[in-house]
Amino acid sequence: MVRSASLIGLAAVTLASPALAREERLPIDVPASRLDQAVRALGRQSGASIGFRDIGVARVRVNAVRGRYTAGEAIYLMLHETGARARRVAQDTFLVEADPDFGKARESPPPAPSRARDPYRPIPDIPPVEIVVTGTKRDIPIEAYPGMVHIIDGDQLNASTGRLGSDAIAATTPSVVSTHLGPGRNKLFVRGIADSSFVGPTQSTVGQYWGNSRITYSAPDPSLKLFDVRRIEVLEGPQGTLYGAGSLGGIVRVVPRAPQLDTAGGSVWAGVEAVSHGQPGYDGGAVLNVPLVEDRLGLRVLAFGSVENGYIDDAGRGLSDVNDVDSLGGRASLRFDNGDDLLIDTSLVGQRIKGSDSQYAQRDLGGLTRSSAIQQPYSNDFLLADVVVRKSWGDIDLTTSLGYAYQNVSEVFEGSALTSVSDSLLAPAETAQAARFSQKNVINMFTAEVRLSKSLPDGTGWLLATSFLRNEAKVSRQTETPPFISPLTGVQNNVNEVTVYGEATVSPAERLNVTVGARAATSRLSGAAQDAVVPLIAYNLDPGAKASRNETRLLPSLAIAYQANRDLTLFARYQEGFRPGGIAVRREYVQRYEGDRVRTVEAGLRYRTGGLELETSASWTDWSNIQADLIDGFGFPTTSNVGDGNVFSAGFSGRWRPLPGLELDGAIFFNESKVTSRDQILVQLQQKVESESFNRLPNIADKTARVGFTWSTLLDDDHDLELTGFARYVGKSILGIGPILGQPQGDYLDTGLEASLRSGPLRFSLALSNLLDSTGNRFALGSPFQVRDRNQITPLKPRSLRLGLEFDF
Questions:
Q1: Phi, psi at residue 743, to the nearest 5°?
Q2: Of the ranges 46-50, 264-268, 657-661, which one carries the lowest mean pLDDT score?
Q3: Cα(711)–Cα(722) distance, rounded to whole angstroms?
Q4: DSSP designation for 635
Q5: pLDDT at 536
Q6: What are the residues whose beta carbons fall under 8 Å from the beta carbon of 805, sequence distance 6 or more?
Q7: pTM here?
Q8: What does DSSP assign to residue 653?
């Protein structure tokens, strides 16, 4: 029974806010329990976003609420006289925090009803992080953002999904796809903008960011584990104005949790996984948050490790389950708050992935078996160090950041000894001796940025910034044909990029926002051959061992967002993106490749109301002078400009809460790409082999689709149960451009199901993946030197069952 005083306060708050009075009253049934358990239940039942930043507040016991209430009414009743209060930070979004007036209220007479503690009053000092797009480098409410964005809340990522790294992002977002050479070797693509299957000197088409720092340029996706993450944002591209070179398809930004300055706590977890047709795996980790100086200085550390035992057999060497992958890493972050709107964050991120053998199999040997003569291990060592300083003056923010990222990627491929180097299209003899080809790619990247921005609640504001980037990438290669070891020509590429950019959003009419932006970028490019063998001239390739030049680009952008009503937003935008050129090698040849450019027009809508969220958009991209990695006649990856093309894509995603505790989600993404004109070398190749692979871009499925559900219920005051599941279909695609790479892949269904039971601070989970035990073909490549001769596939991981335990303290 709620006391009369509570009802008086509730009525006063509700009547004082007309916006709240229009909210729908829903059946609410939340028993008395801990706050963290209660807000999950209330969020599911009401559709509201309810968050808290203080672990201590999460342990507060709250009142039971039963009846028909709006989300705001239910939160008020739940927290009444508990020592916690809720503040509305946006429509259907609340932040729960400790109530500093709670003790005073007990010592003095209660205030008049009209002056009751108002959980709905505006709070300018707390940004509405739950529903704003922060990847725009200034806070923009999602209702006012003129483009497609996908936000994954960190609370959706537990220990089971976090260990998957980038695969967890791709499984959730249909417009994101990845190659599958193995974790630490892959490339990510967004919105159908894909160039090639290999990681060479070309810059990625997707910008990847960890917090405020860029983590890749010409490096593979490091697949950082997604433990202790606050949120993930995928902004579909191009994003040239805000992020410059290498954001043709978009950006993927992971925001880790920052240290808490007033509460100590943490968590530990462990899991064991049984794999069909393979060996069991293990994983574990821990997070610890420690305030060093209360409200001033805090430290947060994370450590994790995992062993994913193999499931692919090698008939050629008589071995079973050869493709083990070990991961080890950690993070440490330090936050200083001077109490006067100045924040200083420093962090260190490290991770090592070591694969004992390649991940591919051969379809003709059963899908989980291959035949090779040698072991083909790989590794990826990643390190990131950064510092970010933020100073605020009301709604104006100054952010300065420095970052250093390092990757060392080593790979081994099986191939055949070459009989001739006189023609780059000549294949090795069928009787050639087996050879071991090894490649090491070492990347050092330094970034710096200073930006000043103003953000207003309606999405208007402005941004001015300047940035600097230096990327040094050195690729070295060698071949071993016992008893000989011979170096192969490698390459070093250096890029120095200085940019100035800005963006402004104004509201020329009611409910209409117009955004105009531009970026001016100047790049200094230099490259040189490493361990050069005798250069040869063929097909008009430049045999020079060194080259350098400057490139200057201007990238304009224009976007419009119209809020037809508080639930519906219509948007349209024009955006550009580019990548600078560089130096590549083809066997002993050294050649230049030019920069490429995309121009994209997009239109769509976003609808969000109560328990229903819908987003849809369509885009057309013109891509000129496409950079792509090919395979020459020997099997060597090489980079070239392959011509011009265009990409049409359309996507739809939705989320619906039809019943208390039940959430359904679905998405579908269509893509159609075409290479409209071809480079002279590709024309010569096509005369030898006719293939549809010349007419489409690689690695992007013609369609991807996903359906999923989450259902949760409170069993009693101390226990709650949650079930989640998904099915994801990936359509047909090809491996690459050209006759050798025109291998089919895709056309598979992936599934997953997880049940978790929380009992106080303990959480037990049971996760089942690949329910149908499908083999599929995620990627049609193992060794590039054997693509022409063997039907290579990368199968899905067989059906697996993981039992996990997590403990919060």
A1: -95, 135
A2: 46-50
A3: 6
A4: S
A5: 44
A6: 269, 270, 271, 762, 763, 764, 765
A7: 0.83
A8: E
Question: In this structure, what DSSP letter does residue 121 have?
Answer: S
Q: Which of 400-404, 636-640, 715-719, 724-728 shows the lowest mean pLDDT across its residues?
A: 636-640
Question: Rounded CA gap, 170 and 246, in Å?
Answer: 19
Candidates 575, 517, 526; CA nearest to 548 is: 526
CB 253 within 8 A of CB 239: no
Rounded CA separation 226/254 (Å): 8
Bridge partners (DSSP) of residue 470 are 446, 496
DSSP assignment string, 248-313:
SSEEEEEEEPPPPSS--EEEEEEEEEEETTS--EEEEEEEEEEEEETTTEEEEEEEEEEEE----E
Q: Is 631 exposed, middle or buried (0-12, 13-18, 19+ CB in 10 A)?
A: buried
pLDDT digits (tens, 9 = 90+) for 228-273: 998 999 999 899 999 988 899 999 999 999 998 888 889 999 999 9
Highest mean pLDDT among 84-98, 200-214, 561-575, 737-751: 561-575
In angstroms, the CA 22 to CA 453 distance is 34
In percent, how much of the chain has pLDDT > 90? 52
- Which residue bears the tokens 């916006």? 19
By C-alpha distance, which of 313, 307, 425 is closest to 358? Answer: 313
- Ramachandran sector of residue 672 (left: φ over 0; alpha: ψ -120 to 50; beta: rest): beta
CA atoms within 13 A on the CB side of 97: 14
* Cis status of the peptide bond prior to 122, with omega within 30 of 0: no
The tokens describing 397, both together, are 């923010």
Q: How many Å apart are CA 258 and CA 238, to the nearest integer? A: 29
Structural domains in the chain, sorted by start: 4-115 (3.55.50.30), 132-252 (2.170.130.10), 253-808 (2.40.170.20)
Q: What is the pLDDT of residue 421?
A: 39
- Is 90 exceeded by the pLDDT of residue 281? yes
Q: Are 84 and 63 a contacting pair, CB within 8 Å?
A: no
Does the pLDDT at position 585 exceed 90? no
Q: Which residues have C-beta within 8 Å of that of residue 657, sequence separation ≥ 6?
A: 44, 47, 610, 611, 612, 663, 664
- How much is the average pLDDT of 722-729? 95
Q: List, for residues 535-564, the tens digit of each pLDDT value.
A: 444 444 445 567 788 889 999 999 999 999
Tokens standing for 526? 């230099």
Mean pLDDT of all residues belonging to the chain: 83
Question: Please, which residues bridge with residue 361 across strands?
Answer: 793
Check: CB of residue 338 under 8 Å from CB of residue 392: no
Cα 408 from Cα 381, distance rounded (Å) = 5
Distance of alpha carbon 551 from the chain centroid: 29
| Residue 283 CA: distances (Å) to CA of 171, 222, 366, 599, 725 | 20, 18, 29, 44, 22
The angle at the Cα of 712, spanning 708 to 718, to the nearest 5 degrees, equals: 155
**Range in 343-357, 399-413, 637-651 the model is least confident about:** 637-651
Structure tokens at 575: 């955006």
- Phi then psi dihedrals of residue 5, to 5 deg: -60, -40
Confidence of residue 686 (pLDDT cuts 50, 70, 90): very low
Closest of 561, 654, 546 to residue 604, by C-alpha: 561
CA 746 – CA 178 distance, rounded (Å):
11
Nearest to 429 by CA among 420, 439, 438: 420
| Residue 497 pLDDT class (50, 70, 90 cuts) | very high
CB crowding 659-681: b at 16 or more within 10 Å, else e: ebbbbbbbbbbbbebebeebbeb
| Torsion sign over Cα 591, 472, 165, 127 | negative
Burial pattern 378-414, b for ≥16 Cβ within 10 A else e, equals bbbbbbbebbbbbbeeeeebebbbbbbbbbbbbbbbb
**Contact present, 20 and 120 (Cβ < 8 Å):** yes
